[in-house]
Specification:
- The chain is mostly helical.
- The protein has two domains: 30 residues, no CATH class; 164 residues, no CATH class.
- It is built from ten helices and no strands.
- The chain is globular, with a radius of gyration of 20 Å.
- The termini are far apart.
Length: 204
């Protein structure tokens, strides 16, 4: 804990103390996370943001973490049964989640990431902020739904086909995007494409 004040570190640019500047001084310098802009996005549903944040921080209670925390001996992936359940496996390597991502990539006509989300996002050049928001909403919703299916499989012994997840994600994403549809300044083609493909039942 920082207990000694030195210099003017807790003053803002104008040399005036504020609670915010004092907190920043007390907290110290923290690295900026490149994924914050698409996880904590205003168009994402709050529950999607929270699970997405836990995923990026690798704080979900996956079986490998449970083995370390409580000594559990069961560590197999419930979705595919081919490997140990870790964050990297569930969202990057599991055949189930990779199939979900591929179906959604075909649906939104954009190749979504199947390996490193941070590197993929930093390389994207979207035509507009609204298009980036729409893709972010789909990607974060996909992560949330993969984790939801995993929990259904573990707790209720239910498994849903990847096609079900691919149909569910666009609907939940459009809930958060719906406020912008119809507004002249945000009524960009990506919104209409997403809405049309959902209503037309492109995903069988």
């Amino acid at each position: 804990m920082i207990s000694v004040y030195a210099g003017t570190w807790w003053l803002d640019e104008d040399g005036i103390y504020s609670v915010a500047s004092g907190y920043k001084w007390f907290r110290g310098m923290l690295p900026a996370m490149s994924w914050h802009s698409w996880i904590w996005n205003s168009v994402n549903l709050p529950k999607h943001c929270f699970i997405g944040w836990l995923i990026m921080r690798k704080r979900l209670l996956t079986k490998d973490r449970l083995c370390r925390l409580v000594g559990s001996t069961e560590d197999g992936c419930d979705l595919c049964g081919t490997d140990k359940e870790t964050h990297d496996h569930i969202f990057f390597h599991c055949p189930y989640s990779r199939r979900c991502i591929q179906l959604l990539s075909d649906w939104c006509m954009t190749q979504l990431p199947t390996s490193n989300f941070e590197d993929w996002w930093s390389r994207q050049a979207f035509q507009s902020q609204a298009e980036g928001d729409a893709i972010a909403a789909i990607l974060v919703a996909a992560l949330y739904n993969v984790w939801w299916v995993r929990n259904q499989c573990r707790v209720n012994s239910l498994i849903f086909r990847p096609e079900y997840v691919a149909r569910t994600v666009p609907g939940s994403s459009l809930i958060s995007l719906g406020a912008s549809i119809g507004q002249p300044d945000l009524a960009l083609p990506v919104h209409y494409i997403l809405l049309y493909r959902l209503l037309a039942g492109i995903i069988n």
